[in-house]
Write a structure and sequence with these properties.
Strand content of chain B: over 45%
Helix content of chain B: under 10%
Largest sheet of chain A: 7 strands, mixed
Shape of chain B: globular
Order of helices and strands of chain B: EEEEEEEEEEE
Distance between the termini of chain A: 38 Å
Radius of gyration of chain B: 14 Å
Structural class of chain B: mainly beta
Radius of gyration of chain A: 13 Å
Largest sheet of chain B: 6 strands, mixed
Strand content of chain A: over 45%
Structural class of chain A: mainly beta
Helix content of chain A: under 10%
Oligomer: heterodimer
Chain lengths: ~110, ~120
């Protein structure tokens, strides 16, 4: 069966520090991968998606970037965090474009 | 207009009650529709897909009206464990009609089932 991992589970970082969040998927090949952010009291916002190694599409301009160095690894990064980057970051995968997505446990980021 | 709009609630219902959630979406080109459930401080989990003919999964019934761009979820015989935020989700279609599996989430409707 497929599983998706995210780490760390929680993170507290000062403004201006770098960020690296990692997501890995097991049990499937060539998944579509997605990064979402959920700010406090708000809905999920799609940040990036990837249909293959090295293929990254950004949905909204922001202070973040994404990379996919391996088929089942998706990384979210920032060079300098802003207060507004605080939120719940969720990675998701799907096997097709039909829309059924499966989420990882998420990383709760607080920028201080 | 928001791409996906839901009544945020909260809905507070007793066990055994029937509760209905509504959702509207703005992009008539959308082709896939879902209800996800999110427990407090947890990741969303797929509850069910929504089909044009309507579909049922145990106590849950989903309906889609493409003409009105309206989606609904009915929960019968509510259980304490149904307490969660219910997210209406629609696939995001670009100008060329491609989705790439991208989803647009509603803000969610909070449900609390009490004894």
């Amino acid at each position: 069966s497929q599983t998706i991992h995210q780490w760390p589970a929680t993170l507290v970082q000062p403004v201006g520090s770098p960020l690296s969040l990692e997501c890995t998927v097991e049990g499937t090949s060539n998944p579509n991968l997605y990064w979402y952010r959920q700010a406090a009291g708000r809905g999920l916002q799609l940040l990036f998606y990837s249909v293959g190694i090295g293929q990254i599409s950004s949905e909204v301009p922001q202070n973040l970037s994404a990379s996919r160095p391996q088929d089942r690894q998706f990384i979210l990064s920032s060079k300098k965090l802003l207060l507004s980057d605080s939120g719940f970051y969720l990675c998701a995968w799907s096997v097709d474009w039909g829309g059924r997505q499966y989420f990882g446990p998420g990383t709760r980021l607080t920028v201080t | 207009r928001k791409e996906v709009e839901q009544d945020p609630g909260p809905f507070n219902v007793p066990e055994g009650a029937t509760v209905a959630f509504n959702c509207t979406y703005s992009n008539s080109a959308s082709q896939s529709f879902f209800w996800y459930r999110q427990d407090c401080r947890k990741e969303p989990k797929l509850l069910m897909s929504v089909y044009s003919s309507g579909n049922e999964d145990g106590r849950f019934t989903a309906q889609l009206n493409r003409a009105s761009q309206y989606i609904s979820l009915l929960i019968r015989d509510s259980k304490l464990s149904d307490s969660a935020t219910y997210l209406c989700v629609v696939n995001k279609v670009d100008a060329g009609g491609t989705s790439y599996g991208k989803l647009t989430f509603g803000q969610g409707t909070i449900l609390t089932v009490h004894p």
